[in-house]
Amino acid sequence: MSDRKIRIALVYKKSYNFFQPDHFDRTSYDFFFKALKRNRQLEISYYPCEKKFDVSKIKGMCDIILVPNNRIDGCPDILIGIKNSNIPVISRTGDPHDSKKYNQVKFCKKNKIEHLFSHHPDSLIYKYYPKNIKHKTIIYGLEPQLYQNVPPFKTRIKDRILITGKMGRTDLRNRIANYILNPRRSGWYLYKLRTLCKGLGYVEHTGLKEKLSDNKNQDYPAYTSKYCAIIAATTFYPTLKYWENAAAGCLTFMEITEKNNGYFLGYNDNETAIFINEKNYKEKFQQYLSDPDNPKWEQIANAGREYTMNNLTNDHAVSSLVELMKEI
User: Fold this and answer.
1) Residue 227's domain spans which residues?
2) What is the mean pLDDT of residues 305-316?
3) Is the pLDDT of residue 166 over 90?
4) Is residue 30 a part of any domain in this protein?
5) What is the DSSP string of 56-106?
6) What pLDDT does 190 receive?
7) Which pTM does this prediction carry?
């Protein structure tokens, strides 16, 4: 493409849950409706629709069709005429282990979606998608304006460690049932270390949805930045919480292992985060809790925040998306 602005048609279902104004999770809305608009290389047009969208309506009016995901909750069921169109289609994709459940590979083929982006590494994506579907890792989701003003580290709760997110069940009966009826999809399977952390007496946990619903004026960064230390733990791949927690100026205990391949995020152990795993997590927590006023914790937290804000915001993500668009 030339140096002129890239014309983007964002095509999405009107009913898409994550674009609704009253939805508690603003991540998708902020990225697609705010961050994209801020990039001077893009010209965005929005096309809300129902189950079908006729691409002939935008012929000659756009260079790229962008859809919020490769599922029928956010994307129309069918892009009519896309097979005979030369307009490339780019889609965000979510948890790759859901691809079979929602027939996402077939959906890509039906709607000529040949380019995906997500904050997952290629090594994970191509366990579930064929190589003919191109993928680019783009670490999106962090809206920088929400993290401009966070309270000083020294003023925060220091004697408890916060954890947020979905949890598994630890009772053996439930784990056996999930192993049989819900293999590789249970909370215990996907969030084992996170679930183990919840059981510790010094770990604070409240379901995020419930917490934010109780206080409409409190968003995720306002909630997390009340604490000095926080845990981000997912078994098979890092999630948005990793860089959100660091951006909030928290000392972030991150599950980084060979299994979840979290190294690609760019954080360094004992420099911008504290790396934990199933063998050392209690020891790492005690090192902090036994000496919470040690200045090194604040230094690591500040360095993690600086790295995140300089490298992993939505504006950086959109710049990476623009690079992908120029390559097509």
Assistant:
1) 145-311
2) 99
3) no
4) yes
5) GGGTTT-SEEEES-SSTTTS-SEEETGGG----EEEE---GGGTTTTTHHH
6) 86
7) 0.90
